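Mods, move this if it's the wrong board.
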Amino acid sequence: MVEPAMPGALEIALAGEAVALLPERALWWPRMSLLAIADLHLGKGDHFRRAGIALPRGGTALDLQRLDALLEATRATRLLVLGDLLHAAVNDAPWREAWSRWRAGRTALSVELVSGNHDRALRTRPGLADALGLHVHGTRLAFAPFVFVHDPADAADAAGYRLGGHLHPVVRLPGVPRLPAFRFDARAGVLPAFTAFAGGWRVDREPGTRLFACAPDVVVDVSR
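Not the wrong board. Structure tokens:
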């Protein structure tokens, strides 16, 4: 059994490992004390507001509060972001202060990143990863039996079960709004976007594919 037990979590076997899918759109790998999320997109709201699109403020703070709750519940020692931790250039972006305060309060936590397409600033600005308290692994991290990536399609040659994000999968069920979802097939899995401010790729039931919807407070197997 996956420990610690968390309300609403769904325990599954994945590539021979016991993991838990969490309603807050995260995957918990207890044997490695690792919490995996994808597509945090820090500063996405700031970026849209600078482009003249009116959006409510506070999205980054809410996402970090949700992340705090997961870290406290799991007691994870490693946080692995599967790409797109950032959304755009950082410069004087308002979210940086919130992130810095959050990171300063969790100095014992290893915050790691598999680089995604939105993380360009981390590749082009020396010292930025250190300033944000990150360890960047590049575009993939082999951690048997998994290979962590951003877009699973970019690592088809990998020797291991690929886990990524990028696609923001969602499902539609009768009578309810679309829900973020985990999607797993025989060779790769996709996590839902962690940020609450994300579009979605609709995924449907297919033979050989497992789908798990993140309903409020519970993960539900909707494969059938």
